Amino acid sequence: MKEITILSGKGGTGKTTVTASFAALATNRVLVDADVDAANLYMITPHTVEEEHPFQGGNLPKIDIQACTHCGECITRCRYEAIEKGPRLNRIACEGCGVCAHFCPEGAITMEPRVCGTWFNSSTENGPLVHARLGIAEENSGLLVSLLRREARKKVDETAANLILVDGPPGIGCPVIAATTGCDAVVVVTEPTVSGLHDLERVAELTTFLKVPAMITINRWDLHPMMAERIREVAKEKGMHHLGDIPVDDAVTASMVQGKPLVTCSDGPAATAIRGVWQQVVNFLDEKRGPLKMAL
Question: Is pTM, for the whole model, over 0.70?
């Protein structure tokens, strides 16, 4: 079984568009939307939700007003100013450290599991999809990403799939590390801009540190051919394998409106390029990690 994570370094590069098309081109796959802060793979992958589960990450204090003597100890001790007069808990400010419960002289505060969001098991034409929705201003996105990857491996065992495709989060933070650690390879989707180049370099440092082979494709490369060439040079210097590039194509927007992967509703230049990129991904894994048998 192989696991490929698609990263971007920044939002808006077309990572999810590429992931959805990869899912349509592959067979025997399980899909994971690891961008739990702003999940959108399901929007262009027709699906049916089969299971819904709460996600608990960390703890929150619960104040027993009847037992509270209003001594103010919890307010004084909280360095995050998460407990206000009343006393009342400011859920957004709370870090769940438990200091208030530890120092409450009356034992009026207890720590209880914090529900941070919801995760789902869905079915699609392109295989099972494991995805999630983190609550507003909630944390522990890295923990939730790890949970989704574990659930995806269970789906592999159930369906005899040989591939996990992970639509990763943007950036290089905790959720990206959780989505990348231990996978077989990374595909970085970037764009021909200064920020695209900068964030590509940061992702390259991360994948090098994690010892994960990295590949690169430049989306909308023809918007700035000179910058695209510069990105190819930097990718080569960083040891990242260039898969080919994707041109600007109005069919991408049209596919989003239809809520379908690009390659299923277009034979235009972008769809053709993505098919070529996917073939290069398969070839790369065949060379680096052994045969990856799947239909194209």
Answer: yes
